[in-house]
Amino acid sequence: xxxxxxxxxxxxxxxxxxxxxxxxxxxxxxxxxxxxxxxxxxxxxxxxxxxxxxxxxxxxxxxxxxxxxxxxxxxxxxxxxxxxxxxxxxxxxxxxxxxxxxxxxxxxxx
Length: 110
Fold this sequence. Notes:
Oligomer: single chain
Radius of gyration: 15 Å
Order of helices and strands: EEHHEEH
Strand order of the largest sheet: 1-2
Strand content: 5-15%
Number of helices: 3
Structural class: alpha+beta
């Protein structure tokens, strides 16, 4: 069955009915990434997104979560849009939960 990846919109072949044949089983995910994915509302993701998320989650666990304004790094945790801070997917993963505010780069699929 063909599906659209909810993260990047790419069309890919999902074989959840024959999971041993599905391309997603070839992606080795860390336990942290598996826990993160359980917090999302994503159904199936393409292998490219699974690999990217695995890297983001791994990096998010290695770097300290910023707790002061000075600790936030532009283009890592946020970028500016018309003078407003827009939080990045990386920061939102690093924070560890969905705030429910409809963030532009919400990595929880909500």
